[in-house]
Automatic annotation (TrEMBL):
Function statement: Catalyzes the oxidation of the 1,2-dihydro- and 1,6-dihydro- isomeric forms of beta-NAD(P) back to beta-NAD(P)+. May serve to protect primary metabolism dehydrogenases from inhibition by the 1,2-dihydro- and 1,6-dihydro-beta-NAD(P) isomers.
Cofactor requirements of the protein: FAD
Entry binding sites for substrate: Y57, F58, T59, A60, R61, R308
Domain Amine oxidase: 109-324
Annotated catalysed reactions: 1,2-dihydro-beta-NADP + O2 + H(+) = H2O2 + NADP(+); 1,2-dihydro-beta-NAD + O2 + H(+) = H2O2 + NAD(+); 1,6-dihydro-beta-NAD + O2 + H(+) = H2O2 + NAD(+); 1,6-dihydro-beta-NADP + O2 + H(+) = H2O2 + NADP(+)
InterPro entries: Amino_oxidase, Bac_renal, FAD/NAD-bd_sf
GO molecular function: flavin adenine dinucleotide binding; NAD binding; NADP binding; oxidoreductase activity, acting on NAD(P)H, oxygen as acceptor
Family membership noted in the UniProt record: Belongs to the bacterial renalase family.
UniProt: FAD binding residues: S13, D32, K33, R40, Q56, Y57, I128, D302, V309
Protein name: Renalase
Species name: Pseudomonas pohangensis
């Protein structure tokens, strides 16, 4: 029996599920509200090179995920990044002893999801607002009033707050998604024509509005004739400053960056800001995936498992496994 499956969300979790279902011989249709794949692994192209504003890197521990990472590296979608890593704590900046392998998409973080997407069918710039079931099949309604379907199964692979209303046909799943708290993050990119005089290429930050600093230009295959940096504010600071204008976020986080370096930054030649409302789950929920096999409605995402790229991929694979079991049992 070949199923026809709708997958809402073309981030790492939705794509992991899509590839698994495709390899099992089933038809699916991906939907994403954005103009391209990636979710929080999205990147921005600029005249000064590729800028990773969302996920900065990922690590690999699970054996299955490690095997996938090896394959992605062979495909040229990712490469290891070994930055000169520092930590800033209690007003002191020092070299970090952390030597774990970090992976980044090449030439930008979203290249990984572009590779996973391949030729799979996808409708971008399509915001699904409602998922409902008739006598036998699922239908999707988008923000423009267009219906999509019929589908035998639906997988919701969006952040928890966005997933909850799409899971309304299974109230217990919707409640679990609604109860999953997500943390916001302000992200700022800065570019300087003259490189900042520091050997630091990445830094974990405490006791400061910032939580993370990366010399974006130090990542593999990031071109451009500018010294580009990405700053991530702490979730606590972001919650307190959710309503800042982008210009104010740039000003305040640039000052925090300067305090880490112990200097006043020169005026940036390029800057932009983005607010991620659902950057990461506040805690590890541990349920891996959500499933109502009887109705044929499922959910996955990093918010279901560990909150990392690895967790998102594992959750998507687990959701695909649940769907395949449901199909076999039908």
């Amino acid at each position: 029996m070949q199923a026809h499956i709708a997958i809402i969300g073309a981030g790492i979790s939705g794509l992991a599920a899509a590839r698994t279902l495709h390899e099992a011989g089933h038809a699916m249709q991906l939907f994403d509200k954005s103009r391209g794949s990636g979710g929080r692994l999205s990147s921005k192209r600029s005249p000064f090179g590729e800028l990773d504003l969302g996920g900065q890197y990922f690590t690999a521990r699970d054996p299955d995920f490690c095997r996938a990472v090896t394959d992605w590296q062979k495909q040229g979608w990712i490469a290891p990044w070994s930055p000169q890593l520092y930590q800033f704590r209690q007003g002191r900046l020092q070299v970090s002893a952390d030597e774990q392998t970090r992976w980044v998409g090449t030439p930008r973080m979203s290249a990984l999801t572009r590779g996973l997407l391949g030729e799979l069918p996808v409708r971008f710039a399509t915001r699904i607002c409602e998922v409902f079931r008739g006598d036998q099949h699922w239908q999707l309604l988008d923000a423009d009033g267009q219906l999509h379907g019929p589908f035998s199964h639906v997988l919701v692979a969006t952040p928890a707050a966005q997933a909850s209303p799409l899971l309304a046909a299974a109230p217990e799943l919707a409640a679990q998604a609604a109860a999953t708290a997500m943390q916001p993050v302000w992200a700022v990119a800065l570019g300087f024509q003259q490189a900042l005089p520091t050997p630091m290429q990445a830094c974990f930050v405490q006791d400061n509005p910032l939580a993370w600093i990366a010399r974006n230009a130090s990542k593999p295959q990031r071109g451009g004739a500018i010294d580009s940096w990405v700053l991530h504010a702490s979730s606590e600071w972001t919650r307190q400053h959710l309503d800042l204008s982008p210009d104010s976020a740039i000003e305040q986080l640039s000052a925090a960056f300067g305090s880490v370096l112990g200097t006043t930054l020169p005026a940036a030649d390029f800057s932009l800001a983005q607010r991620w409302l659902y950057a990461r789950p506040a805690a590890d929920s541990g349920f891996g995936t959500l499933a109502d096999a009887q109705r044929g409605l499922f959910a996955c995402g990093d918010w279901c498992q560990a909150g990392r790229v690895e967790g998102a991929w594992l959750s998507g694979r687990m959701a695909a496994g649940n769907i395949l079991q449901s199909i076999s049992a039908a």
